[in-house]
């Protein structure tokens, strides 16, 4: 209930008032401790594995929720909503937004707007999360906790703001994550009753399937901000510090080819050479064969 109330409070002021402020302005860079406590609680809840124990079922659900939602972040929130690097129908667009929203990384407009802002100011004093200028902590997680970054920069996403269903998901970004958590809890309870041989229950599946997987997903996504600008190789001189990194690409299903991406942000595939593994691109191509997405920018 506390998570719900805090999320409601956050949704009230998630929208902009007046012009976009400069990235490093006055008291707006202070951490708002009231709003971040659900984020802290979720991290603490992941330690619940000490009491719930583990099972093959719970760990498998954790892995599925991590990789499934990582794909939704990379393919939908990033390559589609942020960069519009391919096309999909409006119904599929809504499904993609819901899937991305289930990762508990705010709404699609908020995510896309902040990412577009990053590309406009990469590794300059106005960048929201440059590790070379602001350090690891701020680039990894600190920027998300600051007052100025709670509101959606609507001026940067007029193409998305014309869809009321996306606007709703953005304003009430807590709804889908709460429903996702409840569904996992309910599934765990059902399995304990009807499939006891799987050795799981409501609390165990909730802790592993939602709490642990979401925390891992947070940091798996955040390492692109904090590490992909300082660790790896550079194919292109992009006038920023973006790097290519195989390890980060495996963690994020292809986002680690970050130097490639900053060279051509609107390109759907981020790996260029055959050995630059980009799982997100492979899945998107398979989806195109089914007619779910198409018109890739290459």
Overview of this protein structure:
The structure is a single chain. This protein has 298 residues and is mainly α. 57% of the residues lie in helices and 1% in strands. The protein has helices at residues 2-12, 33-46, 49-52, 56-82, 90-101, 108-120, 131-134, 136-140, 158-161, 164-171, 175-194, 202-226, 246-252, 258-263, 279-289; strands spanning 87-88, 293-294. A two-stranded antiparallel ribbon has the order 1-2. The longest helix has 27 residues, at 56-82. It is globular and about 55 Å long. The termini are far apart. Mean pLDDT is 90; it is low at 1-26.
Please give a handful of descriptors for the protein shown:
two-stranded antiparallel sheet; mainly alpha; 298 residues
> How helical, in percent, are the residues?
55-70%
What general form does the structure show?
Answer: globular
Major pleated sheet: 2 strands, antiparallel
Cα distance spanning the termini: 46 Å
Number of β-strand runs: 2
Hey, roughly how much beta strand do the residues contain? under 5%
| H/E series | HHHHEHHHHHHHHHHHE
Number of helices: 15
Strand order of the largest sheet: 1-2
Poorly predicted regions: 1-26
Q: Evaluate the radius of gyration.
A: 19 Å
């Amino acid at each position: 209930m506390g998570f719900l109330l805090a999320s409601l409070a956050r949704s009230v002021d998630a929208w902009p008032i007046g012009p976009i402020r400069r990235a490093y302005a006055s008291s707006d860079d202070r951490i708002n401790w009231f709003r971040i406590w659900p984020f802290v609680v979720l991290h603490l809840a992941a330690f619940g594995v000490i009491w719930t124990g583990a099972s093959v079922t719970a760990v498998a659900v954790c892995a599925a929720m991590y990789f499934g939602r990582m794909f939704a972040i990379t393919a939908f929130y990033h390559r589609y909503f942020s960069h519009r690097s391919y096309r999909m129908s409006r119904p599929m667009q809504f499904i993609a937004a819901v899937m991305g929203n289930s990762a508990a990384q705010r709404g699609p407009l908020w995510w896309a707007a902040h990412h577009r802002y990053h590309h406009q100011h990469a590794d300059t004093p106005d960048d929201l999360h440059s590790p070379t200028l602001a350090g690891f902590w701020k680039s990894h997680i600190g920027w998300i906790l600051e007052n100025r970054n709670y509101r959606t920069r609507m001026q940067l996403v007029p193409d998305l703001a014309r869809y009321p269903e996306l606007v709703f998901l953005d304003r009430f970004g807590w709804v889908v994550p709460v429903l996702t958590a409840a569904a996992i809890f309910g599934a765990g309870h059902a399995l304990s009753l009807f499939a006891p041989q799987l050795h799981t229950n409501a609390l165990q599946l909730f802790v592993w399937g939602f709490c642990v997987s979401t925390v891992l997903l947070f940091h798996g996504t955040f390492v692109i901000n904090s590490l992909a600008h300082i660790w790896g190789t550079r194919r292109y001189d992009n006038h920023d510090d973006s790097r290519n990194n195989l390890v980060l690409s495996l963690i994020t299903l292809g986002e680690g080819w970050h130097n490639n991406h900053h060279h051509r942000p609107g390109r759907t595939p981020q790996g260029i050479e055959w050995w630059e593994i980009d799982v997100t691109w492979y899945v998107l191509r398979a989806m195109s064969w089914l007619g779910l997405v198409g018109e890739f920018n290459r």
